[in-house]
Amino acid sequence: MSAHKAKQAGDQQAAEELKTRFVYQDDEELDKGFDMVQVKRLSHYMKPYARQIIPIILIMMVVGAMTKLLNPLLIAYAIDHALKNGDKNALLLCVGVMLTLYIIQWAANTYRIRYTNMIGQRVIYDLRHHLFSHIQRLSFRFFDKRPAGSILVRVTNYVNSLQDLFTNGVVNLMIDCVQLAGIIVILLLYNWKLGLAIIITVPIMFVISTKLRVKIRRAWQVVQIRTARINAHLNECIQGVKVTQAFTQEKENIAFFDEMNKDNHYHWNRASTLNQSFGPIIEVTGAVGYCILFWFGAHLIQTGEISIGLLVAFATYIGHFWEPINRLGQMYSQMLIAMASSERIFEFIDEKPNVGEKEDAVDLPNIRGDIEFKQVEFEYEPGRHALNQIDLSVKAGQSIALVGHTGSGKSTIINLLCRFYDVTGGSISIDGHDIRDVTISSLRSQVGIVLQDTFIFSGTIRDNIRFGRLDATDEEIEAAAKAVRAHDFIVNLPQGYDTEVQERGNVLSMGQRQLLSFARALLADPRILILDEATASIDTETELKIQEALKTLLAGRTSFIIAHRLSTIRHADHILVLDHGHIMEQGNHQQLLEHKGIYHGLIQAQYRFLKETG
Ligand SMILES: Nc1ncnc2c1ncn2[C@@H]1O[C@H](COP(=O)(O)OP(=O)(O)OP(=O)(O)O)[C@@H](O)[C@H]1O
Questions:
Q1: Which residue, 268, 499, 535, 613, has fewest beta-carbon neighbours within 10 Å?
Q2: Which segments constitute the ABC transmembrane type-1 domain (predicted)?
Q3: How far is it, in rounded angstroms, from Cα 597 to Cα 577?
C-alpha cells in the first residue's frame, strides 16, 4: 500500500472513530402541522392583555387597511374626472385627501406596530418566566435525562421563535386577510371580468410563496442547527482544552471541527441560493399579472367598458396584492415552526416534578436532627436497585460517615434525605416526621449540603458566601469565613471579599473552594449537614485547615459525610460501610477495625496508599 493510501485509510479510520466521540444531539424536527391545542395554549398567554391592548390594535388595523384600499379609487377619480375635465380644484382636493389618508395610515400603522410589539414582548417575557421558574422546580430525575444544551435551547431559541408570531404574526395575518378580501371585492365590484382575470395570479403567487418560503425557512434552520453543533463542539473543546493538549488530540479535534465547518458552509450556500431564487420567481409571476391586466384592460377600454383611471387603479391594486400574499406565506412557515417550538416548550411545562408535595403537606417545625431510615429501597431506573433495605437510626448531633466503593450508594442516601428523589420503598423521617409529608422548602432549608464539586457562581466572594443566607450581614459573612479558616486567604485576594470570581470559581484552588462552601453552609446554619468530601489530594496544611473548619462546621449538628479522608472517618460517631446498595457493616472506627471485614480492608488499602505516596 502506498504511503498516500495508508494515510488516507488512517484518516478515514480516525474520522470513523470521531463519529462516535463527538455526538451532539439536536432536535432535528424542524416544523409541525397545525395543531389547535397548541394554538389554544399559546393564545392563553395573550389573555391578560386581550382587553386592554387588542381592541386598540384591531381599530388601528381596520383604519390602516381601509385607508390603503381607498387610495387607488381616488387615483381613478382624479384621472377620470379632475384630470379629464381640467378641474384644478378637484385635483387639489384629491391630492389633499390622498395625503390625509396617507397620514392616517401612517399613524394607524405606527401605533399598531407599537402595541403589537408591546403585547408580543410581554407574552414572550411571561412564557420565558413560566418556563424558567418551572424548570427550576423540576426534580433531579428530569435533569438526569437531558443534556443541559437541550434545556438551554428551549428557554432561548424556541421561545424566540415564537416571538415573531406574537409580535406581528397574528395581527398581520388578520390585516392581510382583510386587505386581500377588500381588494378582491373592489376589483369584482368595479369590473368583474378584469377582476377575475387578474385574480388568477393570486393562487399562483400564494402557492409559490408558501412552498418556497417553507423550503427557504427549513434551509436556514438546518444552518442554525449546524451552527449550534459548532457551538457545542467549541464549548466542549474549550472546556476540555487541557485534556486535549495533555493527550495531544489537537489534530483530531481540528479535523472534526473542519468537517463541521464544511458542512455548515455547504448548508449556508444552499439556503442562500434558495433565498436568491425567491425574488425573481415572484417578480415573473407579478409581471404575468400586469401583462394580463394591460392586454385585457386595453381591450376593455377600447370597448368602453372601463376608463383609463380604473385601469391605473387596478394596476395599483395588483401592486398591493403582493404584500399580503408574501406575508401570508411568511406567516404560514412561521406558524409551522411555532407549532414545533411550542410543542417542545409545553413538553417541559407539562413535566411534573417527580418529587411532589402533598396537598396537605405541612412545614417541618424547627428540628433537633434525629433521623430514621426504615427499610429504605431506591431505584433510579426500574429494576436496578441502588439501595436495598436500608435501616438506620441517627441521634441528633451525631456524625455519620458513609464509606464504600464507587457506585455503592453513598450519594444516593444523601439524595434521598434531601428529597432530590423519593424513596421507592420504606420511609425516611426526621424528628418523627416522614419527609414526604412536609413541604420541600421547609425540609431543605434545615438541611445544608456541601458538595464535592463546589459550585461557585459568578459574582464576588461575598456573594458566594451569602448564597447560604441571603439576608446575612457583611459582619456575619466575615464571621462565618473566619470560623471555617477561610478569612485569611480571602483577605489576601486582590479585592478581598469583593474579588470577582467566575462561574465554577476557576481562580480558586480546590481547598479554597471547599472552605468557601463551608462558610456558605455555616452561614445557613442548618441542623442537618451533608458533606461530600473532596477526594483530590490537598497539601497537609490545607488538610489541617479543612479539618479544623470541619470541627467548627459540624459542632452540634447531625451530619452525614461521604468520607474519603482517614481523619474524618476515624472521628465519625458512626460509620456505614455500603456495597451494591446494602449496608454491609456499621459501627465506630474501632469496632469496625476489630471486625476485620470490608472496612478493615479499605483502611489498610488507604494506609498502604498513603505510605507509598509519602
Ligand atoms: N442519576 C442516576 N441515574 C441512574 N443511575 C444512577 C444515577 N446516579 C447513580 N446511579 C447508579 O446508582 C448506583 C449508586 O450510585 P451512587 O452515586 O449513590 O454511588 P456512590 O457510592 O456515591 O459512588 P461515588 O463514590 O463514585 O460517588 C450506581 O450504580 C450508579 O450507577
A1: 613
A2: 56-335
A3: 10
- Ligand 1 binding pocket mutation candidate from 390, 411, 535 (most atoms within 8 A of CB): 411
pLDDT at 271: 82
Work out the end-to-end distance of the chain between its first and last CA atoms, rounded to an integer number of angstroms.
Answer: 52
DSSP state of 516: H
pLDDT: is 200 or 433 the higher one?
Answer: 433
| AA identity, residue 212 | L
Residue with CA closest to ligand 1 atom 1? 144
Look at residue 427 and give its three-state secondary structure: strand
What's the residue count for the chain? 614
Counting runs of H as helices and runs of E as strands, what totals does the chain give?
Answer: 24, 12
Q: Which of 145, 410, 531 to mutate to test the pocket of ligand 1 (most atoms within 8 A of CB)?
A: 410
**Band of residue 432 on the pLDDT scale cut at 50, 70, 90:** very high
Which residues have CB under 8 Å from 371's CB, separation 6+? 392, 393, 394, 417, 428, 429, 430, 528, 558
Q: Which residue owns the Cα nearest ligand 1 atom 20?
A: 407
What cell does 512 get? 479554597
The residue contributing the CA closest to ligand 1 atom 6 is 380
Reading the block at residue 304, the C-alpha cell is: 368602453
Report the share of the chain in percent with pLDDT over 90: 15
Task: Determine the Cα–Cα distance for residues 227 and 157; give it in Å rounded to an integer.
Answer: 13
pLDDT tens digit string along 330-384? 677 677 777 777 887 888 888 887 777 888 888 989 888 899 999 999 998 888 8
Q: Which atom in ligand 1 lies closest to the alpha carbon of residue 141?
A: 1
pLDDT tens track for 218-234: 787 787 778 777 877 78
> If you take atom 24 of ligand 1, which residue's CA is the nearest one?
406
Between strands 528-532 and 447-450, the pairing is parallel
Indicate whether residue 250 lines ligand 1 (CB < 6 A): no
